[in-house]
Structure formats: structure tokens, C-alpha cells
Batch of 2 targets.
Target 1
Amino acid sequence: MKEICIPIPYLKDNEVAEVEVVVAGKRIRYDFRVESFPWEVENEFSSLSDPLERSLARIYKLKGAIEGYDKKWELIQIFNPDEHADHIHVLYRKRLKTK
Amino acid sequence: MIKTTDLVKVFRTDEVETTALNKVNITVEKGEFVAIMGPSGCGKSTLLNILGLLDTPSGGQYYFNGEEVARYKEKQRTNLRKGNIGFVFQSFNLIDELTVYENVELPLLYLKVSPAERRKKVGDVLERMKITHRRKHFPQQLSGGQQQRVAIARAVVTRPQLILADEPTGNLDSANGEEVMSLLTELNTEGTTIIMVTHSPSDADKAHRIVQLFDGHIVTENIRQIL
């Protein structure tokens, strides 16, 4: 078994899910955080009527948000947003520290 | 070893045009282990197929060992693949009508390796993958983990510089998945460059670098480091 799925309550912005597992007597702690980055670009770029340009604007906005994020956290997964979502969810895990 | 510049792939039907890759720039150095992650439909497998010369880009450049190969004809691509690139797929893609031995021998036949050398190479790799005792069996007689070990044996029997793995543990239970990842890590330690598409964060943790794709764009590249 290499992965387990743990149901957790909905995380609000900046809330952290702390998960502690003990494997063969060794205690390992993981901190996960689901970030919610703005995804809608309608207001900022109201001239973008072309869906392709709008899609590009969203990607650049997402890249900017990811690049500017706290480096103590590493990106684990980007979730596909719903069709009309105005935010996109991204899962981060706190980098493990060496002892 | 690998460099792409503004790589584009567009799939067109009569009604719809889908941009699977949009100006993707990626560089992979010899000996690296790179994981490509991203949600379903983001272009991961399309990118892997182009890097493996199984598909051609609609635009941009692709340099393999310094040579521009994006516009190579089918025959040129086949020749470059042979002996240079090994593939490992989620669904193993073994030939059901051939035995384990014959499946692993096949790439050597394409390379016109002599029978004696083939016997030696296939024997060695089957032993290494701990599958010698199954050499006369057919793929359907093996477990998923054993089939993937055969697939890896087939991928590495020609000693390729590059292994491309598309969800290599996707159809395996965790013990077999762990074993397959150990094999890939071991091959990488010996110098083989590996590019692996995966949904599994724990498999990606084995890589030196994680490239996150989204909507056909590389949104971030995360060099694995323990702080």
C-alpha cells in the first residue's frame, strides 16, 4: 500500500490539514493545503471576447499565482475547475524538513 | 538530451479544433528523471507521444540529442526510436500471441541483432527483472505486476538512452507498483533518462523534477528538494 485516501472536511483558504502517519514505527507528518486561486478573468480583461485569449489569460494568471506562492509548500495537484468556476483549486504539501 | 521550443499540437475534426499542447518548452538533460503531472485531458500523454516520436507536433521544434526531429518522416522517426527510446505503458501493450521471451526479443529482431547476442541479452534482462521462470508463458498467464516487468524488460533490452513511461503503475496494486518504481529508479541511477507521466504524487516523488501541465501549458516545474 503506498497511498491512502482520507476524507477531510472542506478546507477554507489558509486552513491546513495536518496528517500524521506512523509507518513501521516511524512517525511522518504531512501538511496539506488546498489553495483557491482566482480563475475568472472577465472583469480584468473585459476586452477578451475570444475564448482562446481568455483561456491564455487564465493560464498566465494561474502561473503567476503559483510562481508567487510560498516556497515552503510544493504543488501536488491542480484540479480541473468546473465550467463556470471563478476559482481554481490547487493542492499543496508542505516540504519535508531534513532532521 | 531533449529540448522543445513552442511545441504545439492541435487535433482537428470537421467541427472541433482542440489545442492539446500550446507552446510547450521543456528541456530534459541526460540522466534526469522527470515526472509529468496534471489533471486528465491536460496534454500529458500527447506530450509523451511526441517526445517518443510516436506522434508529430503541429508546430514548434523538437530537438533530440541536438537534432531537430519534429518534421521527421515516419521511417526516420522509427529508426531514431529503435534502440534509443523504450516505452512502458499503463496497459503493458504486450503481444498476447508471443511468449514472454519472444515479446522481450522483438526489439532486438527489429535491430537485426544476431541470434546468439539476442539469447544473451534477453536472458540477462529476464533474470534482472526476475521473470526468467515465466519465459515460456504468454502475457495472459501472468499477473499485472509480472506483465509490467516483462514490458520494462522489453523497453530496456536494447539499452535505450531514454525511457518514456505513461502511468506505469496505473494498473498495478501497490506492492507491484512499488516494485516497478524501484526498477525505474534503479535504471535511472544507472544513467537512463526517464520521463514518466503519472497521477500518483508518491510515484512523482521518485523523480528529480515534477512538471505540471494544465490545459496544454506547462504551469510550473518543481525541482524536488528536501528543505
Target 2
Amino acid sequence: MRLLKHLKLTVALALAALIMWALWPLTASANPETLEVTAPSPITLGSLYGATGYATGTSSTSGTVLCEGYANGYTLKINSNKADGIMQEPGNQKLANALLVTADLVDGTGASATQVIADDVTVTTGLQEVGHTTASSSGTNNIALSVKQAKQITGVPGATYSLTLTFTASVN
Amino acid sequence: MKKGILVLSMLVALVGVLVVPMAALAVTTTDVGGTMPDVTLTLAAPSGITLGSLYGATGDATGASATPGTVLCLMNPTGYTLKINSNKTDGKMQETGSGTLAAVLRVTPTLGDGTGATVSPGSLTDVTVTTTSNQTVGTTTASSPTETGTNAITLSVKQAKQITGVPTATYSLTLTFTASANS
């Protein structure tokens, strides 16, 4: 009796797994689910403490989010590899300056985007929402990125500074 | 046999469950970078002054720079200080080839606002510039990156005492300006 019970359970699980395994590619084939994100091009600030004002920069090429097959759209988030968005001089932990980052999720051929980070936000190591979509349509939205220096420099002349921004897209 | 099927089926089911959320996340990065510029501090002296006559018929000799000097200060948020001194003790001009004191000059340098930072003038109004005083002409207190650029140095000189030297002898004095970035 117990052997029969075990056998039924095993068969049921195997069948469920086989059905899931069999249906997944069929479903993907009929309605491909794709979520891809590409980063905006890197920004090189000409001078972190310019003669005519704070340094500013904009990505020459926008990033993109391609979302297909997810009816509830997606959410785009951003964070940095430095706490408080503060750039640090390599080999020297002296703080250089804080950057204000403006990242916009822009409507494209994809779903209409709801922007969250509208202007002048200091990006930190914590995930912040750039924007999200709620539409059922599919396609590509753009990520516009601009950066400006927010504070005066206290670092060493001639030293270089860098910051890495990470964009994460996840389906809703 | 049945255990093997059980384990295999559970593994397949687990993979099937995990594949969906893994595919629903996409990550990418971009870099932002820059270079810390060097502090630039460039100084040009006012053009030379030739006094027509150290003891003119109508009064004390006077002169002014036709072209003002300039101070260019970039990238230093705390501004700079401009100082002046001379190569003669007590600002007295001496006759060439002679130790005879000729005249005391009153020098009035001014550091003026330009495209650079707002200037806090020193207290140099008709003072005797000496080798020891290294007197402050003016200071700037730039508080933002926009307050950098060029300030002008104007200079005027006038004779302060009558000449006691030799007629037709020549006299000269060199004034030194020093600009230093504030810390």
C-alpha cells in the first residue's frame, strides 16, 4: 500500500515536471519573454572643478530597456558603487566630490514610462527607482543619463576619479 | 529506481520554477569619471613707469602704468592673495653708481575686480613699499568655481620728497608682485 502511495506521488511529480519542462519552450515560442537592458554610454566630466562652473556631462548614447512578453511591464532601478554617490580618488580614500545624477526612463516603442527620478538626485549604493511601466504593450524604452558636480573639490590636483552606475530592470 | 525518479522529477521541477524569475531580471552598468584639475595661478606685472622728472618744475613727478597687470587664478576655491615689495629699503630710489639716496616713492597698487573673484582690497593707499614689508595689495575669497578668472593690478607712483641727487643721473626701483593661492 505504501509502495503504491510512493509510486503515485513519484509519477505525479514526474508528470508535473515533464509538463512544465514541455510547456516552457512552447510558451516561450508563442509569446517570447524578453527583458534586456543596455547602459547609457560612459560620461567623462571635462573638469570636476571648472573655471566657468560646476562640471556637467550627458551620455552621448542613451541606454535602452527592451521588454517583451510581460503584461505588467517592468521597473528600472539605479545605484552606484560608492556610498552617497561620492567619487573617491584611487589609491587615496580622500573624498572628491558628490555628483547629482539625473536618470530618466523615456517613452519609446515600448510601454509608456512613468518617471520617478525627475531631477538632481544623489545616487547611492541603495537601489533607487528610475521609473516603471505598466502597459501591456512591448518594445524598447530609453534611459537618458546626465551628471553634474554638486560640490567643490577637495582632492589632489591631477588625480582621476570614477564612479560606476548600475541599472537593474525587473519585471513587475 | 523510484527514489531516482523522485529526485530527478523534483530537480526538473525546481529548475523549471527558477528559470522564470532569473530571466526576468536584467542588469547593466555605466561609468562616470573625471580628472581633478591643477590650480592655475598666473601673474603679469603692470607695465613699467617712467617718471618724466623726479623733481619737476610744476611739482612732484607722478606716473601710472599704461597697461595694468593681471592675476589669473583658476581652480582654487579659496582664492589668492597679492603682495608687493621693492628691491630698495624704504622704497628709496638710488642714483646709479652712487649710494646717494635720491627720492622716496609713494606706490599705490590696486587689485581690481575682473572676471575673477571679488577682491578685498588691501590698505595700500600712498604707502612706501619696502623690501621688508611684503605688503598685501588685496585678497580674494572665491567661494564657488565661478569665482575664478582674471583680476587687474593697477599701479601709480608719485615722488614723495625732493631730490638731493646729481642732476641728469638716472634712478630706478623694481617692484615685485607675488600672488599665492590661499589655503
